[in-house]
Amino acid sequence: MKKKNVLKELEKEIKILDSKFKQLMNSDFISFQTVAAHKNVTGVYVIYNHKSEILYIGSTNKFNIRFGTDLKHESTHTLVRKLIQTKDFKDRHQVLEFLKNKCKIKIKQCINKREAEALEHIAIYILKPVFNK
After folding, report:
1. Residue 81: CB atoms within 10 Å
2. pLDDT tens, 121-133?
3. Fold for domain 3-132?
């Protein structure tokens, strides 16, 4: 592939990710339960605390699994482990209650896992969430 074509393709992909990032940031907040109802949907999620601070950004190819099962177990999700390590929560049950009742979530659907991971990494780089470090 010629250099000029590669640069055009890169510009195209950057525009797509820029648009998706803006859509993610401008989307409405939704509840934990609403996110969990998205079956077999691939995308990026941003978790905010009750003070509207960004806690965590992640991607998944199944929101229903991530928010239905994964976040219920500290062994399967980094955010749960990190929240327990803060000493503000004694176990995964308290973390889950916090996520369900005190947090707000934004999501952006993506066409595939690769696009979701690219959007996730860009969002983490730009927004620097507390628990993605």
Report:
1. 15
2. 999 999 999 999 7
3. GIY-YIG endonuclease (3.40.1440)
